[in-house]
User: Fold this.
Amino acid sequence: MKLFTRSFFVLALLAGVTSCVSTKKFNALQTDYNSLMAKSTELARDGETCKNNLERATIALNSLQQQIEAEKDHVKSLQSALDKCLTSAGQGNVNISKLVDEINASNKYIQELISSKNKSDSLNMVLTNNLTRSLSREEMRDVDVKVLKGVVYISLSDNMLYKSGSYEISDKAGSTLSKIAKIITDYKDYDVLIEGNTDDVPISKPNIRNNWDLSTLRASSVVQALQNNYGIDPKRLTAGGRGEYNPVASNASPDGKARNRRTEIIITPKLDQFMDLIEKAPESKKS
Assistant:
């Protein structure tokens, strides 16, 4: 505005002094005026450009500020998500640690079971070998020794053990029972089940009503012989009868009947050992 005021002032001055100045001076003043007008126009144009640039800069600044605020919100969101992840990861690490501990405990327990089984299998093998080596060839005809599922079965024929049709122990059974008693004595960590079995031929005597009675009385006779004659701890002994209901062969033939008439001495690790292992079993903990 000052520039325009000065321009009008110059024009008025020129008008007033035109008559007083020479043409040369007038032309010089006219040139100055034109130059001033050009500069005025240029300055006005530059001012408009600056104004436009300022508006664009303001818009850009506002946009940038909005982006900054948006990024701040995004960072907050990411931080919150990170905190949750860290919390979750920490909990996950705890759960994984617990799971690893449980797996290690289970592996240790499995190793104990395997060790116990291997020990039992080894002892069963030694027991079986010692017994079979101690028996004569003649005795082995009436004795069958085998190991099934970690249990030693000693099957004795009734012809060798008992008097005919009776539950009394025969004299010739003494030698065989003494050898079996020695094995039982040597392996104190084993319990002993004596189990009587018969064929399917009915029996009826004043003191024996049926095959249940006969099988049970025969098992009881062996138990009492082991206790009274060979000093086996009676707490380790159990007597039971299966009658005719646990055959190992068909009763249709004399040979099958003879095989079914037997008494089995079953030697098994004490139940307490397995109960101790069961109690040691690691518990599964839910987190």
